[in-house]
């Protein structure tokens, strides 16, 4: 009781303090210092119409590389924490016939939609991370509906590593051509797709990077699911 | 304001009305299974009304295009396919974890079926292929 009361009082104090700090920030006013620059130049500098993905991939590509690294470390960490000599799925009941049939029907569409999200990252909201998460959802569905389903490990781990490396290689090609890491050579030097901004084949290397990130995130989250679902079996 | 916009507005209104009924059912119904019944059916229908209604409504306005309707129909079909499946899985899980029926229920055929199955499994000397006539005899 005393503990709870103390916790509530402390939280109230912290909340009041944060509210005091936020009270000095004017909301609803024009506070764009860098933002206006992004909005004004995003089309001719990156070829993308989605300013968010242009900022995330082009202007601040290092952040995205860091996020991909964080996800990779999380996946590796889960794998290392839950490592056992022999792990199997020990689920006892298969999903009902409605669930299994529904999963069979839905999985291709969920995957298609995930691919749609990450391919259209430069045009519509979304990008690599939501698309990858959607694809991982499809594998989660398979894991939930079938008691014996397992992801094809060999292919998945290879794809994961290969696409992660491709991201760095794309950045390094930029370094070789343009002079700095993650330089958008497809857009800046080749002017590829310059005449159809707003259509699918535009946006410099944003679709390329996002396809890579989508595949990576999808395989990684599926790997985490796989690690967490399986249990140790005694011989 | 033309006919398409009016149709869309009417559909959205009907959809929100069904949403309201669904929320009302969640409060009013006695047990989990009845609540799932109201929540699933009327919420699915309400969503279909609202979503497709928005698509048709957008067709009737000057900024609208067929892309709106296409997208909303895709979303509606997806909801139509997935909502019953999720409700089915939820109810089945609730039943399997032993949540009781409403005390006013008069019949639980599924439990009878499961008990008959368990009995058949306990007595294997009665030769298992005779399963179907036994079930028919019970009903």
UniProtKB/TrEMBL annotation, chain A:
Domain Na+/H+ antiporter MnhB subunit-related protein span(s) in chain numbering: 98-221
Keyword Repeat belongs to the record: no
Domain MrpA C-terminal/MbhE: 33-86
Keyword Repeat (UniProt): no
Annotated keywords: Cell membrane, Membrane, Transmembrane, Transmembrane helix
One Pfam assignment: MbhE
Topological type in the membrane: Multi-pass membrane protein
GO cellular component, as recorded: plasma membrane
Transmembrane segments: 65-83, 95-119, 131-149, 161-183
Localization (cell): Cell membrane
UniProt superkingdom: Archaea
NCBIfam families according to UniProt: PRK08386.1, PRK12567.1-1
Name of the protein in its database record: Cation:proton antiporter
Organism: Thermococcus siculi
From TrEMBL, chain B:
Keyword entries, A-Z: Membrane, Transmembrane, Transmembrane helix
Transmembrane residue ranges: 6-27, 39-60, 72-91
Molecular function per GO: sodium:proton antiporter activity
Disordered: annotated segments: 117-139
InterPro entries tied to this protein: PhaG_MnhG_YufB
Record's protein name: Na+/H+ antiporter subunit G
Source organism of the structure: Thermococcus siculi
């Amino acid at each position: 009781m005393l503990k709870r009361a103390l916790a509530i009082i402390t939280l109230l104090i912290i909340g009041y303090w944060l509210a005091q700090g936020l009270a000095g920030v004017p909301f609803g006013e024009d506070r764009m210092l860098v933002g206006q620059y992004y909005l004004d130049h995003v089309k001719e500098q990156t070829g993308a119409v989605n300013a968010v993905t242009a900022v995330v991939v082009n202007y601040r590509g290092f952040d995205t590389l860091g996020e991909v690294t964080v996800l990779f470390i999380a996946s590796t960490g889960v794998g290392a924490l839950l490592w056992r000599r022999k792990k199997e799925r020990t689920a006892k009941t298969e999903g009902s016939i409605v669930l299994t049939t529904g999963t069979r029907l839905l999985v291709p569409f969920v995957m298609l939609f995930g691919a749609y999200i990450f391919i259209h990252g430069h045009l519509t909201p979304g990008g690599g991370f939501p698309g990858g998460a959607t694809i991982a959802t499809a594998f989660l569905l398979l894991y939930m509906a079938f008691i014996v389903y397992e992801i094809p490990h060999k292919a998945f781990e290879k794809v994961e590593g290969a696409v992660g490396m491709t991201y760095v290689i794309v950045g390094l090609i930029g370094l070789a051509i343009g002079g700095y890491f993650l330089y958008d050579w497809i857009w800046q030097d080749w002017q590829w797709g310059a005449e159809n901004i707003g259509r699918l084949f535009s946006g410099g290397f944003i679709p390329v990077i996002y396809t890579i990130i989508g595949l990576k995130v999808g395989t990684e989250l599926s790997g985490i699911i796989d690690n967490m679902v399986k249990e140790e079996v005694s011989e | 304001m033309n006919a398409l916009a009016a149709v869309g507005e009417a559909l959205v209104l009907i959809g929100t009305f069904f949403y309201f009924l669904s929320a009302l059912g969640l409060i009013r119904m006695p047990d989990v299974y009845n609540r799932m019944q109201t929540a699933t059916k009327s919420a699915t229908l309400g969503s279909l009304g609202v979503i497709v209604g928005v698509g048709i409504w957008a067709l009737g306005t000057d900024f609208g295009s067929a892309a709106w309707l296409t997208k909303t129909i895709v979303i509606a079909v997806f909801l139509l396919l997935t909502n019953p499946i999720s409700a089915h899985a939820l109810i089945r899980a609730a039943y399997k974890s032993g949540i009781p029926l409403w005390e006013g229920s008069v019949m639980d055929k599924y439990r009878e079926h499961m008990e008959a199955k368990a009995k058949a499994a306990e007595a294997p000397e009665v030769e298992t292929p005779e399963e179907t006539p036994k079930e028919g005899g019970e009903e």
